[in-house]
Amino acid sequence: MAELLGGWHRSHMCAEVAGVAVGQKVTVMGWVQKRRNLGGLVFIDLRDRTGILQVVVDAARAGQETFERAGDVRGEYVLAFQGEVSARQGSQINERMETGHVEVLADAMKVLSESAVLPYNLEDERISDQLKYKYRYLDLRSPAMQARLKTRHEVCRVVREYLSNQGFLEIETPMLCRSTPEGARDYLVPSRVFPGNFYALPQSPQLYKQLLMLSGYDRYFQLARCFRDEDLRADRQPEFTQIDMEMSFVEMEDVMRVGEGMINEVYRAVRGIERTEPWLRMPYAQAIETYGSDKPDMRFGMTLQTVTEIFANTTCALFAPAIAGGRISAIKVDGGAKFTRKEIDALAEVAKLYRAKGLAWLVPGNPPRGSVAKALTETEINALKDCLGAGEGDLILMVADVKPDVASMALGQVRLEVGRRMGLMDKDAYCPLWVTEFPFFEYDEGEGRYVAMHHPFTMPMDEDLPLLEENPGAVRAKAYDIVINGVEIASGSIRIHSAELQERMFGLLGFTHEQAWERFGFLLEAFKYGPPPHGGIAPGLDRLVMLLTGADSIRDVIAFPKMQNANCLMTEAPNVVDKKQLEDLGICLAENRKQGENQA
Q1: What would the pLDDT profile of 561-599 be if each residue is shown by its tens digit?
Q2: C-alpha radius of gyration, the chain, whole number
């Protein structure tokens, strides 16, 4: 390194020069952000991850050769300067820069490496995702990306410090493990030593952390890498990181106290937001009925009201089918009467995406107008106005369905879309809550059976244990989610620690005794040897950093993310591998096998 730099050693990062005394000699290194040649002087904005520093190259001070070389450098050249810190004067001061009160007068310069012409302007925010992710190493140079990854580092530091102070031990669990059905598809890794057998990359460290509790480690955590082969969206990636933790001898309140304290400490350290009051607790059923979501966005009101009883004797064809056993949900949009018909029709399309048959709307007035204005009686309209507190200039939106949750969830999505359009979602807000009392089971109509809503290792509520066989749909889980600003940040639960109850749960989920022991035998066997009561939670690191930085997607807070089809434009992964590698693993691709059969 000393030979490459010719004996030069960097004394300060660029932004650090702001705190250096005028007249002090410094050595700085970085990339050329901008060069301005004013004839007798060359001004170079030098950039590193701390910020930008102006360097002035004067032929009289640095020599003619250095001056000429400085005049030839281009953007993203990597340079080193030795020089003296000088105070800027008058109009030369740039208040927008952290180093805007000083500059470095160059005595010497080295060109450490040159740069080809960039494929795009790094300051162009309109660049396409395809180009940005193909040249991700260039995108990572942007101040925005560097600030986000710095925040990610800070979150990790705060988490480690907080949990260590709470008596947790950081323990790593395997990346190559057994494939077990936990919901999403596994990523499989073929074994060369055991041909025809496969490892799986962990969807989570769930079973390992439970075994650590059985092993007596009491409080465990790790920043765990997880892998799920599932369809992607803005807040999903095939590989992601979760702040995984587990505790022994605890009830829900103990785990929730630690999780709440940790997130509060992260927001205090990273964003300077102090929160002392306890978080809101909201049962799952209330969240669905009031917000139409199990991750309610509390940054704005516009809550859902169940208005089914108002229309008990209605003749409205849209509402009548939902009266017996269904639900009619409504929201009031303050000032929503100004929405155009085209805008309301677009909201109706949102409702239909979530299985609603349509979106009814009404603007109170004299006369009232809307899609159901003529189908409702004056008594029904007045009762609806009173229930919602609606008046002149407001808009009432309603969804009716024979399935109560469909009505609520469809209107809940409409609520979110209205919130987005009206600018009601403050990215700088911090509105956390716990959602509790999740159903243990949910019915999968495609498979025609019940499946676990969280995972099969969750403990049911004690009072609901008698319902397991007779009414599984009514069983509630000792499960709890952290939701911040409408984003699910963490999911956790108290775990089953009884081999008998665990096998009973597997049976209810459709596993035979043999299948349960074939797939989870190591866990059931371990539970014979004194497992303690335990529970845990796993906040998603990527989602948490996304909220803290105001990013739109977790791709913006991951150094090298995948695209929506799980490929990497930069490295072109996934890709074909050498035939010899496949032969070593005993793998014959289906296409090759078909060709061989045809030749035979």
Answers
A1: 998 889 999 999 999 999 999 999 989 988 755 555 555
A2: 30
